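Escalation from tier 1.

The customer reports that the assembly of two entities below gives different structure tokens on two consecutive runs. Tier 1 could not reproduce it. I'm attaching the input and our single run for tier 2 to review.
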Amino acid sequence: MTIKRRRFLQGILAGSSAGMLPFSMIKAAEDSDDGNGILDDGWRVTGSHFGAFKAYRANGVVKEVRPFELDRNPTEMLKGIQGSIYSASRIRYPMVRLDFLKNGYKSDRSTLGDNRYVRVTWQEAYNLLIRELNRVQTMYGPWALYAGQTGWRATGQFHSCTNHMQRAIALHGNYVRKIGDYSTGAAQVILPYVIGSTEVYSQGTSWNLILENANTIVFWANDPLKNLQVGWNCETHSGIGYLKQLKAKIQEKKIRAISIDPTVTKTAAFLGIETVYVNPQTDVPLMLAIAHEMIVNKSYDAEFIRGYSLGFKEFKAYVMGDTDKTPKTPEWAEPICGVPKAKIRELAGILTTGQVQIMMGWCIQRQQHGEQPYWMAVVLATMIGQIGLPGGGISFGHHYSSIGTPSSGGSGPNAFPLNPPEGVEPIFDNDDFNGYSKVIPVARWIDAILEPGKVINYNGGKVTLPDLKMIVISGNNPWHHHQDKNRMKKAFHKLECVVTVDYAWNPTCRFSDIVFPACTQFERHDLDLYGSYAQRGVLAMQKLVEPLFESRSDWDIWREFSARIGRHQEYTMGRDEFTWLNHLYDGCRTKNKGKFEMPDFPTFWQQGFFDFGEGKPWVRHAEFRDDPEIHPLGTPSGLIEIYSRKIARYDYSNCKGHPVWMEKEERSHGGPGSDRFPIALQSCHPNKRLHSQLCDSKELRETYTVQGREPVYMNAKDAKKRGINDGDLVRVFNDRGELIAGARVSERYSPGVARIHEGAWYAPVNAEIGSVDTYGDPNTVTLDIGTSDLAQCCSAFTCIVEIEKWRGTAPKVTAFGGPKVVEV
Amino acid sequence: MIRRLIQNVIRPLKSLWKTLSRPAQYLSLGTIAIASFVMGIIFWGGFNTALEATNTEAFCISCHSMRDTVYPELQGTVHWSNHSGVRATCPDCHVPHNWTHKIARKMQASKEVWGAVFGTIDTPEKFEAKRLEMASREWARLSANKSLECKNCHSYKSMKWEDMSPLAAKQMKAAAERDQSCIDCHKGIAHHLPSTDGRSHQLLTAVNISVPEVGKNYYVVLQKPVFMNATSKEEAGMLNIATEIAVTDKSDGRVKFRLEGWRKRIGTGRIINEDFGINIKEAELTKGAAQSDAVVKVLEEKVDDVTGLTWQKVTVDLWTNDSELTDNVSGMWEFASTTYREACSQCHSQPEVAHFDANTWPGMFNGMIAFVNMDDDTQNLVLKYLQLHSSTYAGSHAQIDDQHNQSAKSPETALPLAKRQ
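Tier 1 run:
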């Protein structure tokens, strides 16, 4: 069913005066590209990773942003919305790197990063892009093109930029793709072997059942209050509401909560709970000692282990020291993990008393051997024996996208299809990858550029790293999320062409050859699922303003690309923006038939939101606990695998058949390298950004920066010893690189631990390898190695540094404000 | 009262019979013969008129069960209203034009009339509950006659491929080559598809439904209950979707089947899997069935070294309803492949099917299922598809290797291997 745009809009305008609550103030955005060009001022509704909101526009400009009525816990990040739309860092026009414009793929790449760009027309930009794609496909083959580095695109199911870019590129030719992600790379690989599912992206036990039934909640390296501010789809913030309820329960002494972490997290501070400080990267020794204590006291649940798991015997022999003559006692663990042995014994007692819910954060699997703490945590939970009970067991997601809010059972709208239509072959249909792997573990792409042809172990198989020559990136910022920026610079010198599509001139643009200006998600119409796991409803995303400067929606960018390569019909399926929205909505409406009677699309669009309501409480792994035979886990045995024969057979030195403690390549607190670089640098998820998103928003940024730089949080003793005061600029460095940050001195950080939130925009002072980063991206100095031969994911938390006061005049921050435009 | 009834009804009947059974006294044989002939014509004409009357839309919708359900559904479709003004009404599709078939169909349809009168489908709710069963019967009929009634108007020969989308042309050409039955793909074209607890509508449109015959093998189209014998109402477990069964016997509405598979020798052995050491579910049985020697026969035992568990090779003999079975599983794999490709690329490129092995797929699939809109049947089907097309069955164990990626593209070329030892 298609509707004529004009009639449709008339319908919207007529409907908006009908006064439907709670959207009586909303006037639907008028689409100007049908020629009338006049946009109404008023309120519109839209959504984002940071929550749903209403925006007031007057004279074509967003003047005010207010949280959506259903959002009971809106966050400060909404303050970044206007700053992001009207950011000085917006990409205004198609841009090409100066030397690339002159010399094409044979350009001088040593100037990469000097940020000198030339404005070109859209037509010129398309010509260059298509010329390069044709060249790479004919000169090399699909193995030389990487269009797989994808991530947190802006919200909106239709304009999802990953899907647009990958569909369009796939209509042209084949390319190398990725598997896994930077957030949970090790977890996704290890947990299916151990507990039969990736867990991290799964619905968890409902918070209301946890609040009713748990006696103790353990937040292990987990800061939900910080991380629940954002979600994969439009975020509801219902998770934050449950944390408020938890706080009341703690105050009433109905629930005890503990945070095990090297710092006092935002959550721990909010809840007012005890923090057990653990040295960075040493959670496994602490867990092993707790297990040892449970074994010695016979306080573990032997019956649960017998009925629901395999391999406890092998593991127990290791813990007791039968296999390596080192019993993993609290006395053994204390010097490594820094937790006093008495405290370890106390923890073993707490964990085996009453109903205990363990909630794991993701940081501790983003380190060398990141598989181990997760595997070991499952073993501990198995020994406690409460997996599958309401308010007991273990979870890996209660800090993410409001997991733990019951699912409504409603189906959200599908996205614009990522894959080309079935039966349509690309123009360059060569599918011969020349012996290279066509899929690579996501964090190993820089290795591929630097060492093409190298064969690495991965998850029981082998990967032959492809010889990448060209990269296409959209709505993703690998120059934030990848480790070791100076190593990345070296790798990018070997590439021939890098193309980026984004709305803000982030560090990736600055290391690209061709840059396309996309509009923000607020400059196009879309629709989204409200609440990724809660599935609370379907939200209209009404365009707030017309695309600024020469920016275009991702749909328009790739639609024209497709037309230029003769694939317009295949790309669009003959639909325009509104017909697509209508189509995606109708699909959603059909799926929900019988469960939820949704109005037709024009009515929905005018109402702005369809509410599926609240879902029913649910317990993760309850079915398994109830009948493990009929509801086996997805492990080879169907049971929890404390010992995995499958992994043991891979015969990896860095991931054995059961969890073990292994020393890291570098580690603070007496670990390797700590004599020169005594401070652990942790790069956890930011408090006021989503990774690197909103870093461009000046108003929001200024609420946390120190002298315009990203803050580095550190302990008072460490600061004093180095003559650093709160508010000073400091140099954070190791052998890999250096960055300037602003010191925030705090008692909430234990000695030897510093944090810089990831997502700070990398801003080298110049193109040279090793040049100082002027804003403070922690990944300037992090280590770029795989977690192990099993997951091969990133090890960003295996990082040690020294910090000193910045002497002299600090170079200006070069991160924001776009490129240096060169006239030619 | 009963006596009065007998007096009033039986007596006149008796006297009528007396009259009729007496030889003709006043009429000639010729008169009788002519009168009989005329009467015959009138009767035959009347029968045919009556029969034709049952072939009109007006008759079809004279009862509530049709008028309130399938009839308004038809009105929303292109077969009711379109730019060329041609309309297909009930009998055009549902009554065979050939006389013998017509009478056979009428006999069959009398069951629905019975149902309407005696209350099995006399309310929309009851109709809905029976819809899958009734639709299955009609699909099986149309599958068997290659959708003859559709082809009275539509013909493969008259189709203009160049006016179709590339995908439609590809699929229609393939169908034309096989003279495939239209209904195999176009279920739900005139009426709503059966909606039974959110079970997969679209899946039903992807397969032909077979009328099972003894001695042949079939695949389960939707998960379905199994029974200990031909009549028992008590369920003995559940067959998983796309499971292959061999039909060994048949009795009113049910078939007896044999299933071959493997089970772990733990618990009570209730889950039957496709293959040794590999968790691809064929069926789950009740404790009673799983432990009955009459149902499960153990052929051999082996230890799986990946887990150290003992597995048993077994045959299972049970009964199930004769509906929702197909003799052609490839339509199901095509459906699963398309569903996987679409549903699992909402947020990122879907992993290559052969990227993981058969025992790893459940963990990966379960881990991401929160983001996809699939009902239970579709989930089970897609998981089974992924497992049967995983690296386990695509060659060596290497996880990421070019030659393994074919299976993701073309389900036909990588059908699950015949059950291995």
